[in-house]
């Protein structure tokens, strides 16, 4: 196949350092650039090299086809499908391996290796591969989209490996319209990471785009669907949040109850719309009663038995009291956080999540929800469960995850 490298791909191929990285947005030409790099080393002299990808399907569906397209057939001696091993006429050997079991990579002696999508792999894979090229003073390179401030960020920042950065838009074959579409729907940080190859830190405030634009007076509307987002607790507070949802995907929170020691009985009364006196002494009456609520969305924990309720799960207790609209949702927390971030502010700069100013607890939790930091100052990818801000934040995530998943996947 005749091809012309993009300028970023060209820069990467011409790096002379032993260890290097092509840090690129999705579809920026990473796998292509890495394959050209491997072919160059396999052709230059007799070498043994390895091409590594996170999973076997990525090897089979992405990397082997790239080699088939880009290495001229006249260089190939034979290829073993069962061993995923390629012999070149100049004596070079190329091994194709998945990194699913890093220990399996031990025992090879290599002159070069290429790791595709390294940022979703553990650092161990890199360490094992480095040990494979020590005796040969060989080369290693990674082609990947960034993934937060992880080990690849550390390698690049410390200068241990040289790097070239490429945005998705640096691949002339990609339709600019697709990139603009992604900018409109993705959370800004996620967009920068995925399309602009930026090492985004998820440090500090989880919802750092939350601001005044998300706080507006909201009158509950009976003509729109109403959902109740719930995170049930006992000593840790129970959080109940009422929201209207419109057909444009806007979520408007208009009421909240966040209180410890709410018994199932009191929770049932609150949900039904009865006037209740809360343990804190406040009186509360929901503006939208149960019969006008389209769904109550909670986390999977609502199915777990609770000691303080005689071993029954809250969902069962509420069901017994006639509250049968509860759906529980699961799913990845990290993905849920991204979905909430995209509601707070989409990459095109529009908010889709609004809170009435009297929901003070919810507003302060959006501002205070943060990531823990370990001793090295590297933030975790999971928000801190600090028992202050996480209850309303879990409820918001369940609601947004539940709405995104649709009724199809909900369980009762
Ligand atoms: N220099 C080039 N010449 C011709 N086609 C190219 C070139 N670079 C990339 N492509 C094509 O552009 C598309 C994206 O390239 P590639 O798969 O290497 O990108 P990627 O960054 O690895 O993408 P992904 O994020 O999906 O892993 C592929 O169809 C590939 O064949
Ligand atoms: Mg790729």
Describe the structure.
The protein is an alpha/beta fold. It has two domains: 7-175, Rossmann fold, CATH 3.40.50.300; 212-409, Nucleotidyltransferase, domain 5. It contains twelve helices and 16 strands. Strands 3-4-5-2-6-7-1-8 form an eight-stranded mixed beta sheet, sandwiched between helices. Strands 15-14-9-10-11-16 form a six-stranded mixed beta sheet. Strand 4 and strand 5 (93-98) form a beta hairpin. It is elongated, with a radius of gyration of 26 Å. The model has no long low-confidence stretch (mean pLDDT 90). It binds adenosine-5'-triphosphate and magnesium ion (MG). Adenosine-5'-triphosphate binds at residues 3-6, 9, 24, 26-32, 171, 173.
CATH topology of the largest domain: Nucleotidyltransferase, domain 5
How many structural domains are formed by the residues?
Answer: 2
CATH architecture of the largest domain: 2-Layer Sandwich
Bound molecules: adenosine-5'-triphosphate, magnesium ion
State the secondary-structure class: alpha/beta
The mean pLDDT is 90
Q: What is the string of helix and strand elements?
A: HEHEHEEEEHEHEHHEEEHEEEHEHEHH
Beta strand %: 15-25%
Spatial ordering of strands, largest sheet: 3-4-5-2-6-7-1-8
Number of separate helices? 12
The total of beta strands comes to 16
How much helix is in the residues?
25-40%
* Principal-axis shape: elongated
- Low-pLDDT runs of 5+ residues are none
The main pleated sheet reads as: 8 strands, mixed
Q: End-to-end distance, in Å?
A: 55 Å
Q: Regarding CATH, which class of the largest domain?
A: Alpha Beta
* Estimated radius of gyration: 26 Å
């Amino acid at each position: 196949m005749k091809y012309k490298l993009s300028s970023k791909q060209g820069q990467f191929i011409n790096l002379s350092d032993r260890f290097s990285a092509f840090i690129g947005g999705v579809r920026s030409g990473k796998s292509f650039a890495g394959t050209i790099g491997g072919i160059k080393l396999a052709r230059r002299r007799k070498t043994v090299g390895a091409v590594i990808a996170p999973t076997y399907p990525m090897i089979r569906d992405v990397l082997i086809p790239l080699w088939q397209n880009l290495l001229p057939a006249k260089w190939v001696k034979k290829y073993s499908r069962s061993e995923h091993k390629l012999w070149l006429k100049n004596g070079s050997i190329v091994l194709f391996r998945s990194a699913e079991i890093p220990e399996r990579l031990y025992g090879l002696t290599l002159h070069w290796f290429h790791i595709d999508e390294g940022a979703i792999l553990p650092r161990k894979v890199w360490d094992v591969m480095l040990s494979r090229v020590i005796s040969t003073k060989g080369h290693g390179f990674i082609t990947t989209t960034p993934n937060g401030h992880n080990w690849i960020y550390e390698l690049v920042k410390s200068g241990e490996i040289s790097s070239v950065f490429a945005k998705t838009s640096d691949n002339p074959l990609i339709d600019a319209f697709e990139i603009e579409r992604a900018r409109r729907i993705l959370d800004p940080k996620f967009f920068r990471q995925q399309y602009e190859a930026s090492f985004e830190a998820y440090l500090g405030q989880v919802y750092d785009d939350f601001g005044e634009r998300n706080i507006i007076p909201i009158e509950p509307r009976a003509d729109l669907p109403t959902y109740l987002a719930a995170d049930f607790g006992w000593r840790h507070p129970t959080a109940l949040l009422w929201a209207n949802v419109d057909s444009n995907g806007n979520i408007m929170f208009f009421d909240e109850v966040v209180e410890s020691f709410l018994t199932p009985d009191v929770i049932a009364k609150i949900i039904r719309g009865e006037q209740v006196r809360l343990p804190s002494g406040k009186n509360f009456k929901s503006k939208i009663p149960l019969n006008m609520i389209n769904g109550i969305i909670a986390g999977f924990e609502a199915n777990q038995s609770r000691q303080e309720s005689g071993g029954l799960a809250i969902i069962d207790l509420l069901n017994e009291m006639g509250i049968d609209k509860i759906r529980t949702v699961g799913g990845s927390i990290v993905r849920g956080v991204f979905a909430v971030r995209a509601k707070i502010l989409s990459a095109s700069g529009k908010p889709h999540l609004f809170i009435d100013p009297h929901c003070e607890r919810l507003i302060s939790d959006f501002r205070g929800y943060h990531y823990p930091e370990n001793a090295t100052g590297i933030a975790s990818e999971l928000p801190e469960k600090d028992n202050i801000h996480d209850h309303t934040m879990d409820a918001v995530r369940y609601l947004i995850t539940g709405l995104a998943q649709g009724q199809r996947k909900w369980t009762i």
